[in-house]
């Protein structure tokens, strides 16, 4: 830029000199210099994708736009990932979204891309963000035109996978003087189809199971956001979000073999309903003219999930056909969960005349969960309560948090941000009439970011943060979910919070090429661990009576089990290197977004017992210690291409490819995953038509192969019929330059991700 200014100065001074000497100089044409706006750039602690300047941001929705954003990917059309992060937290205008995960995705799919100004990708969030573990943040910044009026979007989709799954949505935005209102509504029905192949054992025996799961769902969701500007300094707002999901007659049908011989067929019927309502009241005061402000929130969240299931196992010998009139074993479960959360927070943003920024705030969350699990076993054709697996679990948690962050530009090239977050957690759990515990801990979580702009082409930054991961509330509920009578998942109320230490070094070249080097260390890491073992004790008949041999001695049997239990196991270290590029070619006809991720993981730990086991004097349980001790190199990559097919910018072709190599995780080695997606988009005024095929070659499914040093093994294949044909139609109406209502942060945002 300095060179251009100097050249211009010399040019105009020379022109003036020529005129003074009356030389004849004819300037036929002076063309304006076109300065192209930077589409992708690094700024402070975040990467910024200027959507308004991107050629791919027309006629699509926000979810598809996010998939095309550098460092962000989606391989299932239902979730978003930032490179190497365990999860993504969505913020809108620097305010955390007030929706559950599925409702949020539907909202993003219904939001026109034309409403978006820019997308900020924050790989290591600062102390002011309410995130856990190594979560990354996507901050969506909306356009801020102040025109009064209304606009909206109507959207219909139809997906054809194994089953046909239709959905529809609508959004409406209104602004008049001091009032702003935006709302959205979505509904859909879909049936998930999954096919399972399970096997486990050792050198002495083997269990094998084959089957499928059909899970029909009906969903209704929506939100209303109202904002009133009292005057130029004071604003008040109210937000309501709801979601209802019904999954009735979900069927899991599995046929089981032991040592090559047919043993039984298990059929599980399940009915479940989920209700989620949240309310938030927000008040904001602007304290000066340079951007300082004080915000406060009071929130309430109510979550209720009811689940009823009946699991029946029929004996079979030489055919998978069953006789429902023959004797069979069965169990019946009721697993309700109710969560009530009350929360409040106050945040203050202070900007100084010298360009420094202070962020500080306090928050309080009070959560009560009620989990009244009941399990009955079929005895003599009558269901009898199983006291060992019937648990009324009450869990209470109180979290006080406070943070302070200071950001300053140290020089023309160097800027920094330093902060800390303090969290005090007080929790207690009680399985009524059985056991109880109290768990209290304090955490000081520091944060540091340094950003150095070497010159206009080179940018370098370093970030460090510390976070914790508290168990999700459903993970604490001590209930089981059965595949077969001897193969099931087991939740654990005694699992501890994990602590994460995250470091990153990022480099960007010419606002198009980037590299990110990361290191994450986790203490008291937890996950779902496959524990094999056996239970030895007296055999019982159909009436529940102990069986005896001819000598009058109890008949002793040993039953082997595979129990997936959520528990702490040890520590892990993860190294990552991401190389990427975001660039347009041939006058924006071809836009590319490529990235490759290289990872090296070190896991260590051992699980030698099940803390949820209830002692029974008649039976002895033995658990085979599960050893986690490996080092693993892995690679994954995304190739996204958008090609403009017409000069009118109304036809677009999308070609995307994802590849993930074999990856060792706690439960075994995850097999290769890959997906090739193709899309065609047509824009006709306010209408957008899209045809997409996800995973064209049906290669995106999970296989896990796990083997222990002692020879025991556990293998799982989960095929989800991921090839999907999607046809979508979107209609935008009204004033498309309308400013939306002020997005508000909810005080209980940190709790919603754990429901």
TrEMBL record:
<feature type="signal peptide">
    <location>
        <begin position="1"/>
        <end position="18"/>
    </location>
</feature>
<dbReference type="Pfam" id="PF14905">
    <property type="entry name" value="OMP_b-brl_3"/>
</dbReference>
<dbReference type="GO" id="GO:0015344">
    <property type="term" value="F:siderophore uptake transmembrane transporter activity"/>
</dbReference>
<keyword id="KW-0813">Transport</keyword>
<keyword id="KW-0998">Cell outer membrane</keyword>
<protein>
    <submittedName>
        <fullName>TonB-dependent receptor</fullName>
    </submittedName>
</protein>
<feature type="domain" description="Outer membrane protein beta-barrel">
    <location>
        <begin position="286"/>
        <end position="731"/>
    </location>
</feature>
<dbReference type="InterPro" id="IPR036942">
    <property type="entry name" value="Beta-barrel_TonB_sf"/>
</dbReference>
<keyword id="KW-1134">Transmembrane beta strand</keyword>
<keyword id="KW-0472">Membrane</keyword>
<keyword id="KW-0812">Transmembrane</keyword>
<dbReference type="InterPro" id="IPR039426">
    <property type="entry name" value="TonB-dep_rcpt-like"/>
</dbReference>
<keyword id="KW-0675">Receptor</keyword>
<dbReference type="GO" id="GO:0044718">
    <property type="term" value="P:siderophore transmembrane transport"/>
</dbReference>
<dbReference type="InterPro" id="IPR041700">
    <property type="entry name" value="OMP_b-brl_3"/>
</dbReference>
<dbReference type="GO" id="GO:0009279">
    <property type="term" value="C:cell outer membrane"/>
</dbReference>
<keyword id="KW-0732">Signal</keyword>
